Amino acid sequence: MRALTVTPKSANSARLEDIAEPESEEGPIVVETLAVGVCGTDVEIVSGDYGWSPQGEARLVLGHESLGRVVETPANSGFAEGDLVVGIVRRPDPVPCYSCAVGEWDECRNGQYVEHGIKQLDGFARERYRTMPDALVKLDPSLGDLGVLLEPTTVVAKAWEQADLIGNRVTWRPRRALVVGAGPIGLLAALMGVQQGLEVHVLDQVETGLKPDLVQRLGAHYHTGKIADAVDAPDVIVECTGVPQLVADSFGALGTGGVLCLAGVSPTGRNVELDLGSLARDAVLGNKAIFGSVNANRRHYVAGADALAKADKGWLGALISRRIPLEHFEQAFERQADDVKVVIELKAAQ
Ligand code: BGC
After folding, report:
1. 278 Cα–ligand 1 center, Å
2. Which of 30, 132, 191, 264 is deepest in the core (most CB within 10 A)?
3. Is the CB of 247 under 6 A from ligand 1?
4. Are the C-beta atoms of 34 and 349 separated by less than 8 Å?
5. Domain boundary residue among 292, 309, 331?
């Protein structure tokens, strides 16, 4: 069967390959992959900057944001043939650490977790895969091919959950949120902020086009320019770009008692001048909290699926800028102006 593979840490090694059918010991459920989304992590892997192949192998099947359909399953699995499903990206470490032992693999303590399409586990950009029922999440069938947006939504669902848990260490009545970055993660973060009834502001560098339009369609406020000029003392900031200067500016803009979630993976080696003493002093005197958030566990897949089911389908559809057939996968990695989410299609959802 066809698969999109890379040789990790080797730039521009992405290629289509014929690979063996999945082994039966990988699980009793057979899923055919309909689509995989492309994100910044995939771009890093294809550039040779990130990614690890399964033990004993040179190549890694790409694809961690996925949508699939069950084509074979035992009767008592909780799934039926035809179900639209998404594979959970991260799997627990084998020890397991105390977080993985309770299903919180997103908080793995020893770093021995594996991730489909990223770290030591083949991804979903292959025509079929086999899996265990506990590694799969069922989608509302009305989502159709929009279900490919679930994985990035789970990352955001975790960020919001954690921000709320941290806020709730005291009486917590957040009103205003700022999302930095209007890529897929930022827009989905804005969606979930609006769904919670918050006044949501989104800041990005793009001045016109789809991004401002999508933010306005949510009933949220769009800004460009400096964070400090965009919004006054937000209770929550979800920083989705990882750009060091924006991380520093987010820190400075946070309101008293506010919570800053760093959800973007920053590049390293870029120095930013900042008055850390002043930021730290403000954080202490203003009871501010800063935390990082990565990945998602089953609870966040359920919350993400719920957020997508409640969202306007037209709005979600507008997030998918381009659908590229597997045989032309290279085009998915060529960035175009106004791209939000680019998807590689393996098979039609209908
Ligand atoms: C994925 C996460 C993953 C992270 C780090 C992100 O792109 O969405 O599931 O944990 O990369 O590998």
Report:
1. 32
2. 191
3. no
4. yes
5. 292
Give distance in angstroms: CA of 88 to centre of ligand 1.
11
DSSP secondary structure of 6-31: E-TTSTT--EEEE-PPPPGGG-SEEE
Q: Do 240 and 324 lie in a common domain? A: no
Structural domains of the chain, count: 2
Q: Could you give the residue ranges of the DSSP H alpha helices within 199-343?
A: 210-217, 227-230, 244-253, 276-285, 298-310, 313-319
**CA nearest ligand 1 atom 12, residue:** 118
99 lines ligand 1 (CB under 6 A): no
Q: Which of 115, 124, 154, when mutated, tests ligand 1's pocket best, judged by the most ligand atoms within 8 Å of its CB?
A: 115
pLDDT digits (tens, 9 = 90+) for 262-303: 999 999 998 999 999 999 999 999 999 999 999 999 999 999
pLDDT of residue 16: 98
Give residue 338's pLDDT band: very low, low, confident or very high (50, 70, 90).
confident
Residue 306 belongs to some domain of the structure: no
Q: Which residues of 127-148 are buried (b: 16+ CB within 10 A; e: fewer)?
A: ebbbbebebbbbbeeebbbbbb
Average pLDDT rounded to a whole number, residues 115-133: 98
Confidence of residue 121 (pLDDT cuts 50, 70, 90): very high
| pLDDT tens by residue, 142-172 | 999 999 999 999 999 999 999 999 999 999 9
Do residues 37 and 87 both lie within one domain? Answer: yes
Range of the domain at 53: 2-138+318-345
pLDDT value, residue 349: 65
CATH number at residue 260: 3.40.50.720
Q: What is the Å distance from ligand 1's center to 45 Cα? A: 11
Note whether residue 33 is domain-resident: yes
* Mean local confidence (pLDDT), 181-196: 98
Nearest-CA residue for atom 4 of ligand 1: 295
